[in-house]
What does this fold into?
Amino acid sequence: MDDVYRTTERNFLTLLENIASDRDLFVPTDKQGEISYTRWEDLGQSSVHFPETRIGTPPKVFFFPPKEEVARFPKDRGEPERTKRAVFGLKACDLSSFKVLDNIFLDEEFVDPFYAVRRHDTLIISSDCSEVSETCFCNKVDGQPYPDRDFDLNVTRAPGFEEFIVEFNPDSLEAREIYENNSELFEPATEDTLEKRSSFRVSKMEELEENNSFFEVPDDVGDIPPDNPIWSKLAEDCVECGACNLSCPTCHCFQLYESEEGSSVTRSKVWDSCNFKGYSRVAGGANPMESLESRVRNRFYDKFDRIYENYGFYGCTGCGRCIDGCMGDIDMRDILKEVAVESTS
Amino acid sequence: MKARAKIKENLDKMSNIYSSIPAEITDIQDESPNIKTFRLKPEEPFKFDTGEFVQLSVPGLGEAPFTPSSSPNVEEKMEITIMEAGEVTGKLHDTPTGETLGIRGPYGKGYPLEEMKGRDILVVGGGVGLAPLRSLLYMLMDSPKDYGKISLKYGARTPNHLIYKDQLDEWDKSSVIDLELTVDEGDETWEGNVGVVTTLLEEPDVDTEAGLAVVCGPPIMMKFTAQKLLDHFNPEDIYLSLEKNMSCGFGMCGHCQLGKYYVCKDGPVFTYDQVKGIPDLWE
It folds into this structure.
């Protein structure tokens, strides 16, 4: 089979419907201007929204939910529940978050079985960015506004195009099966189609480059010590709400909590935030990251230095959700710019 | 999609890394006013290497990380020495023999026994920091011919705060280990050295060129001990046991980040060379 096909909006919706007959499908919807994921069967009167850019909810919620029971005691809970799922609407930045999450949760020595079965059982239908938001900067962290890997299906829908361009990942057995069951909905992409897609992609990348020409990601964020004024200035604006961590698609910190339910004890994995004061506190009260300066610095060090050094890619996808969500109006890009100035002076 | 293929290969062999097995407390030994040693009997065989750590839970309250103080060679008598420091350890100190705890692990990289073969070993402990070192010393003393000279310097706040007193007496008489003790503050019965443990390190009684040093104790003790040892040993021959907030124990929850490392996975035993220069190393 070829990898790239043309279809119509109506046929694409039929494809989603067919996928939903076999899987628990989540699609973006627009409810009074708020874009969020809705289960296909709960759509009711709402229609599928084709997101222009990444939506506010980070995709990690489908694989690493905010709270989940992971163990019971003394008798364990048994294996993770399995559900075949599909999610539509992820963008390229969302797909790059899997690089970080897979490295953490699918380690060589330890595998998180809850993350693993969800990752295995979830079909990913991504889409090109048709708009670039003011806070997007994927181009600065080795990304681009169109998916080029880690999707099962990708759809490109450019403004002014009549057609939808659907790419099936040749490495995905699931994608192949979906194509075979729905081949009547597609026509092979013409050279003209591919040409249109690629010039559309170039134009989006150019927009991103123009928007973000004011800064570069420095390679030595870790060298700026905790007592540098950059961090104290940042700490003045930070209200310690943790929105940056919670909305970040790669932030993976959690805390295990136990609670008693009758004769059984349950252990739950709950999202945590390095922005919170108690994050690094140990028994006895010592707390290496007690100061807000050290905590705000940690996030930058982790995303742009530690993860890069350990894995060879950035821990930041450039999605800009932390910028959108910050109550203190902190823009990561401004800080990176200051760090770059500081480290060359 | 590579991730999916990789998961598929392992789907059948995945175990639940978050679950603990029950372990009954079969004996409790008072070591000092705020330190007790718990002997545990895990429901299933529980293997570990010396210096690796476990997550011990008081069911319903929560977990805390500890390095067993017993020898990995003696499986039926696993011992964990615990200082009362926070919520979980406080509750543990009130828990009687016969109660059941949860245990999972082992985790981390323990003491590099292979690296130690044929070399002199200076072991420096402070307070409850002797706990993991006791496990190491048991291993070294099980096959003394494999190692060079073994020297132990151990310090505590007062004579009453020295742990494993019976064991220390035995070691004092043993020809396999050279033992020196010190206390910060003596009492009427104390005839030994008075002063912090670094006062015993001015002229180390081992071959510092070819030998190595292993240190475990409170952060402030580790900091000054490491500085003192650098006068004599190579930075890559000084082993430190570091502690951080740890929730998962296997490099996923993020809390124990130290510079580019996760203490739970890359440690808890590090060489000084690995961790020198990390901003919050001793905090």
Q: What stands out?
A: The longest strand of chain B covers residues 21-32. Chain B has eight helices and 15 strands. Chain B has two domains: 14-107, 113-241. Chain B has a mean pLDDT of 95.
